[in-house]
Design brief:
Aminopeptidase, seven-stranded mixed β-sheet, 7 strands, alpha+beta
Length: 211
């Protein structure tokens, strides 16, 4: 198994990683809620989003890929929220919406994030943020996500961070246990009735660990 930095030509695979991570165990993924589009359109949107000129948290440059026999089998992202957080994502959105011929008053031409994002936990000050991990079904339970996690934590440490944060849906017990094995601890929860109605989870858990 090889761990490497993602490239622009990984865009199609990264779109699957981001969409799958956003679904986790819930009834409807966060990207389906934000975009209001079927799966193929969401994947096309995320593929374009991962290669925008403006870097942001879903840009390919933030990701590591696990590769088996030159085939991408898993991916995971990590980023500095002060540089690549939601404001950077907001700047990248318009070009993708235009190319996709989508028109969303919440996410395009507005400084107000989509309502569904109100339940996303705030960043812990000075934390390296881990985001969007997914593994192809046939490669799960082989420790690949753990390999990616160790690599992305090391990247954060090399960039000067001393703490890492990861957010997950309340009720995603398998993921929570996996992160606890890697030293993460629950800091708090953020709940929202609108989020629960749309997503199928009461909210999100914020987990942290020292690097």
């Amino acid at each position: 198994m090889k761990i490497r930095s993602a490239r622009a030509d990984d865009a199609a695979f990264l779109s699957w990683v981001i969409l799958t991570a956003g679904r986790a165990h819930v009834k409807q993924g966060i990207w389906e809620v934000i975009l209001g589009e079927p799966e193929d359109r969401c994947l096309a949107f995320l593929e374009l989003l991962s290669v925008t000129e403006t870097p942001h948290l879903f840009h390919h440059s933030c990701y590591f890929i696990a590769e088996s026999g030159n085939q991408p089998v898993a991916g995971l992202g990590g980023y500095d929220p002060s540089i690549l957080g939601y404001p950077a994502l907001q700047r990248a959105f318009p070009d993708v919406f235009r190319e996709m011929e989508l028109h969303s008053p919440e996410a395009l031409g507005s400084n107000r994030p989509p309502r569904i994002l109100d339940c996303i936990p705030d960043e812990v000050e000075g934390a390296w943020i881990i985001d969007s991990v997914a593994t192809l079904p046939e490669f799960r339970r082989q420790g690949i996500a753990g390999m990616l996690l160790r690599a992305i934590l090391e990247k954060g440490l090399q960039q000067g961070f001393r703490r890492a944060q990861i957010n997950l849906y309340i009720g995603n017990d398998a993921a929570q246990k996996a992160y606890e094995k890697h030293g993460f601890k629950v800091l708090d929860e953020k709940r929202d009735p609108y989020f629960e109605a749309e997503i199928g989870s009461p909210g999100m858990v914020r987990m942290v660990r020292d690097l």
